[in-house]
Amino acid sequence: MTSNKLRIGIIGAGRIGKVHSETLAFRLPDAIPLAIADVNLDAASEVAERCHIPRVLRDHADILKDPEVDAVLICSPTETHADLIISAARAGKHIFCEKPIDHSLSKIDLALQAVKQARVKLQIGFNRRFDTNFARVHNAVTSGELGTPHLMHIVSRDPAPPPLPYIRASGGIFLDMTIHDFDMARFLAGSEVESLYASGAVRIDKEIEKAGDLDTAVIVLHFKNGMIGTIDNSRQAVYGYDQRVEILGSKGAIATENRFPNQVTLSTGSSIQRDLPLNFFMDRYAESFESELSAFVQAVLHDKPVPVTGQDGRAATVMALAARKSVELRRPVQLEEVGHSAP
Amino acid sequence: MTSNKLRIGIIGAGRIGKVHSETLAFRLPDAIPLAIADVNLDAASEVAERCHIPRVLRDHADILKDPEVDAVLICSPTETHADLIISAARAGKHIFCEKPIDHSLSKIDLALQAVKQARVKLQIGFNRRFDTNFARVHNAVTSGELGTPHLMHIVSRDPAPPPLPYIRASGGIFLDMTIHDFDMARFLAGSEVESLYASGAVRIDKEIEKAGDLDTAVIVLHFKNGMIGTIDNSRQAVYGYDQRVEILGSKGAIATENRFPNQVTLSTGSSIQRDLPLNFFMDRYAESFESELSAFVQAVLHDKPVPVTGQDGRAATVMALAARKSVELRRPVQLEEVGHSAP
Amino acid sequence: MTSNKLRIGIIGAGRIGKVHSETLAFRLPDAIPLAIADVNLDAASEVAERCHIPRVLRDHADILKDPEVDAVLICSPTETHADLIISAARAGKHIFCEKPIDHSLSKIDLALQAVKQARVKLQIGFNRRFDTNFARVHNAVTSGELGTPHLMHIVSRDPAPPPLPYIRASGGIFLDMTIHDFDMARFLAGSEVESLYASGAVRIDKEIEKAGDLDTAVIVLHFKNGMIGTIDNSRQAVYGYDQRVEILGSKGAIATENRFPNQVTLSTGSSIQRDLPLNFFMDRYAESFESELSAFVQAVLHDKPVPVTGQDGRAATVMALAARKSVELRRPVQLEEVGHSAP
Amino acid sequence: MTSNKLRIGIIGAGRIGKVHSETLAFRLPDAIPLAIADVNLDAASEVAERCHIPRVLRDHADILKDPEVDAVLICSPTETHADLIISAARAGKHIFCEKPIDHSLSKIDLALQAVKQARVKLQIGFNRRFDTNFARVHNAVTSGELGTPHLMHIVSRDPAPPPLPYIRASGGIFLDMTIHDFDMARFLAGSEVESLYASGAVRIDKEIEKAGDLDTAVIVLHFKNGMIGTIDNSRQAVYGYDQRVEILGSKGAIATENRFPNQVTLSTGSSIQRDLPLNFFMDRYAESFESELSAFVQAVLHDKPVPVTGQDGRAATVMALAARKSVELRRPVQLEEVGHSAP
């Protein structure tokens, strides 16, 4: 770094690029959002104006060439991630990349290799690890508060299915949605998964079936440390975004509730009720987007390990591919059947 | 006692008399319901058959004369309580009497004097002390779990006002409804009330105003130990029977929730809800009716002090009379303005 | 029936025999506990005295011979159930039998055949169906409140493992403990299970492993109606008896909490806490034991179908056997691989 | 305004001045923090640097003279508020002033008169009205969701007493702490208070008594619309900042819970527990500080009424003075005994 602040270029001015730009501009004193690039120049300009970002570009290559840029945030569509990681690494930029790295393990491995060779840092955007609820659960596991963990149950349900075109391009529920839960499971267990059994169904929309995908799924995880975990996924929880975890250990159990817009209970003549939980992932996980970027900035500035590595990104993808295979073969799948060990 | 079981006569075969009879018959192995009397002989017969009570009478005097009866339960209308206590005491019977003893302090004092002279036991039916929730709060206070208590708040609301004829004969909200809360306040504080300020309104039904009563009330209690308490009463909580207590102390606070028929949460597209709380005092306090009678039976059989004394019954009545006076005079009232000290 | 009350003989005066005797004696006006038999005559006498049961016997055969006995409750050890069902059926007695019928499908089928031939009623003691929480969930499913059900999750954890000798004779965790959850799953789904995948571990006590059993298990259920369910079992939840269910449907979700001895929250300088949930199945399910017997008595008296049939008992056993096989083979198992269709 | 953004000068760079500066700089696109003044110039400079505020001054008079400043935030000590309001009003600046305006009604009235004459806007910093919980309660009242309101209960407890020097200068618990609750009561009831009865004690620290103050208080509010309210105050809730409200109405009741840092429940061998609630008012009310400033900025820019007026500030002070008088006289006090009607 040429200064004690991290100068950052943002690639992609869509929804998540905008959120990260605001975080850099308004919440992280040690970060300077220096440039933003998007093929949609208007979108980039709008974010730049809002966030006082001085350099607005159409071509991300101009960011990579900019010697004053220390690090890049890759907020572009998934299919561009691996190539951008490779280019950024070769340009010597530290990298924060949204999940997933790619749907193809070989492309992921090429990207990780480039990062390794360039000796830059790469952090993957598994933001949920930074949510205060899940961080508290993680803390309960690592602190020994729960004793030896035995069982884990993850509930992860979206309020409503995404549009069909999105689903068709998503790589399927396991790579698109469950991938967060696969990462959460590894993060909370503190152990790798050895094998898994996945089962899925189409319960919500027959069009999802025609698109070759599932909208409802259950996965059993067999961890190397002996724990057993389950993941419960649905594309549609009419009451809102449902994101919970429970862990049972030898000394106790821990469970999270959803987040609500208020802590108000209304008692009427027909029921005792409260308003629906936060319904949009941007609201539900607002804090975590800030915390993950803060961790990235500090890791680069102080040359410390990033909290979510490229290998973490790879491991979650391997699990997603194994889940897909398990559904196809209707049997448990060893992870090594899918992904040779990491490079 | 001539045996190791307590032989009991029940006076009054109405709603509460029936409940107590069933408890004696089916839940308390050390009690024998030996006789039941009611001017409505059919009612008495029905209870007797259901509860295997051998002697069915129209005149309660026959119970008092019965040498095999060790103790009586007075479950008749309030206006008969004081006289029945006096007769029963003179007959040498131990007495369990429903609350309140009477609306008149002088009649109460005559009754208590008779009990004292006869050296029989008298327990008053403040059943709520035996509810597991309130007993747990009491335990937190006496065990020191809360440290020194500072503030108390009692919420006590009925689902709906009783019929107007009942209200007209009730002695008013303080003697009829708040009397339970006055007893609860003394029980939980472990201290007498020195003065109180009461304020009331008619918010629900103007007919209650015409009957000279209130349907909504707030009372501030100044305890001799320095605590301050508030009672919040309403004759109408549309969501059901609302009975809660909070105490703040130097080491912590304790609060009770209502009781529900189930522990089920339903999440729909419009709210997160649960079914209404138990709506009928017989359901809400079912356990406590059994526990209070069990305590009475054991106290008599083993010649131990009863847990709720005649003085407890008197003290709650003094508070009710003070509250009535405070509303009239629109100022705080010292309890000694109302009730000379107990005999 | 020769009268309008059901005269019942109880076979077995152990823990559950005593509970059922008290229910018959004190809570069910339409039932008469007429006889009780146990090889331990003292135990039988003690229960008989407590519950006013006139006939006390050492040999259950004397109950079966008694022409005044309309129905029997089989509360003896599991290995005697099937034979007793057969004998009782041949004697023309209606039968309430504790779960499980037997560990062997062929013995179960013999018993069910005898019942069919004798045209007597047989109800199996899956009491949890009658718990107000699970009954409320069942109601939400059948009433359509949840829309089409998609996912189910059952948590069923004991406070502590039973003694090793018990475990050795238990038939294994699936036949002993999960069998309740298998029945619950069928009951709540309103659909049969087609196949299941089970996975287990020994996490709590290595002696359980030596005994050939598991203490921790996860089962995935594939229902014929397309739902997917998971069961999460542990022999040890240090915080107490943990029995919950969640169902997600197209219109909403429903979830149960555990039952607690009180509804009190204590706020201290270190945490906001409540007392542990009910820790003993007799307390946790007290109401349900009464409700199931009441249902049996009414079904016999009014010649209506019993709410839990012999086929229900058989189906849960088939699931347990399939789970055992799935663990052995490490793959999903079709139920028809284990149990030919019912006779 | 000379532009479509509001240019603001901040007077006072202490804790709350810093919070407001950050809000203006980073969260409110329509506001420009143009100048900041503090006798402690270092403090002002530090905030200015963090928040990109171009003009840093020692003397607030320089802000009032600055023709480019449209509005000021008064974040200086309470005793300066009234004079600053007068000066700012005369300088033609719109004003946001922290609570309370002053402890003296006559000084308040002078300030309000100056504001009236200058025709500038004045908003008082009763931020809690903007908290999502209390705003939701307010909404339930005004929308009719609760029907006619009958009873209100406000719990407002600090985690620990402030330092004694602070207490000595605070004007007493009613003017310093309860003043927020007095405003909340008026806000939620949608009605003025006619009379009140206050009672207080020193339960926590005898030094507070020597300082002539109370640390524990209960106030009964009689509203003009017939509602009755209670406020429950303590300077010390060891479990954290406790801020709740309950309202009972003819159609239902509403209640708020505290805010917690996470939604995690830990079940151990001794209790079911969660972490303590947010313990610092800056965290607890973070959102509300942003919302109140946003409302002020919009009211000035679009010439709309401010949501919290100078009369609101005056009314809460009148209630505090009446509470003090009620404690002294040990009787209910009419508000008009204390404050002649507003100018």
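Residues 310-329 of chain A form the longest helix (20 residues).
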